[in-house]
Amino acid sequence: ELRRVQQILLILLTRYLPNIAAVFSALSDAVLSCEFRTEKDQNPRIEWKKRGKAVTFVYFNNKFTGRAKIEGATLTIHSVTQKDSGEYRCEVTASEDHVNLGEATVNLNVLVPPHVPSCDVPSSVFVGSGLELLCKDKMSVPPATYRWYKDNRALTATAETPYSIDTNKGTLKFKSVSKLDAGMYRCESSNSVGAPKSCVAQQLKVVECRCICKIRLSCFTDQTLRENLCPSSRSVEHDDPDSRSCRFRGARPFLLHRVCLPPQRLLPQ
User: Fold this and answer.
1) Can you give the residue ranges of the Ig-like domain (predicted)?
2) What span, in angstroms and rounded, lies between the C-alpha atoms of 47 and 189?
3) CA terminus-to-terminus distance, the chain
4) pLDDT band at 243 (very low <50, low <70, confident <90, very high)
5) Which has the higher per-residue pLDDT, 2 or 109?
């Protein structure tokens, strides 16, 4: 249903009237009314302009631009989009009147219902690692709020849950992922204009990891043996050289250094 914004512009007045706001949903027809009366002039010149980085004419010299039409001084823009949002100015010139110029400004705000959001869900993550899932709908006006679902059940963050949710930013954060966090995740965006929209659910796998440690020994006469332990409960691969030459010289093997290689994924059984 079209909503009219009434603005009375009197050529007889010497002051400009304040701005008013017009709010319409995307793809509807926006009706911007500019009503006036003149003192003598029966054929005043009417112009509609849109202000941005530069002023552009919507209706000028009895010609239209874009998807606009005019009846009297009322401007109708068909199937508005977010690009149509902005400040519109109606100018009425009555050359035969004592006060021959008047104007009114209307701020058009086009509301956009939710669009299908982009959902950033990795295919797999290691046990114990931190994780952030991101949901974003860049098109919604007003900005969308977000809700996350796991296995089609809405997630609600509390002090006891291992995750936190920012409904305005669309983030779902885990401090330390466990096997129980594996599942199908999707996000839903919503605002006051239209029905919520959801991305396609994506599977998140949680996998074990191991750290392979390379140990290198050398001969040293000092009796000290230094050792840096690999993370507990992870497999260790020893790369030991032949230490017989050390025994011949009365020395003992000395741990020169230990290098942990990047974690390797253990495929589910």
Assistant:
1) 18-100, 114-207
2) 40
3) 59
4) very low
5) 109
CB atoms within 10 A of CB 96: 12
Annotated domain spans of the chain: 4-111, 118-207, 210-265
User: Same CATH fold, 118-207 and 4-111?
Assistant: yes
Nearest partner of 145 among 183, 104, 117, 182, judged by Cα: 117
Say which CATH class 4-111 falls into.
mainly beta
Taking a C-beta distance cutoff of 8 angstroms, is the pair 185, 150 a contact?
Answer: yes
Question: DSSP string of the chain?
Answer: ---EE--EEETT-SSPPPPEEEEEETTS-EEE--EEE-SS-SS-EEEEEEESSS-EEEEETTEE-TTEEEETTEEEESS--GGG-EEEEEEEE-TTSSS-EEEEEEEEEEEB---PPEEE--SEEETT--EEEEEE-SS-BSPPEEEEEETTEE----SSSSEEEETTTTEEEESS--GGG-EEEEEEEE-SSS--EEPPPEEEEEE-EE--EEEEEEEESS------PPPTTS-----PPP-HHHHHTT-EEEEEEEEEPPPEE----
- Higher model confidence: residue 82 or residue 41? 82
Look up the CATH superfamily of 118-207: Immunoglobulins (2.60.40.10)
* Span 86-106, average pLDDT: 81
- Put simply, whether the predicted model's pTM sits higher than 0.70 gets the answer no
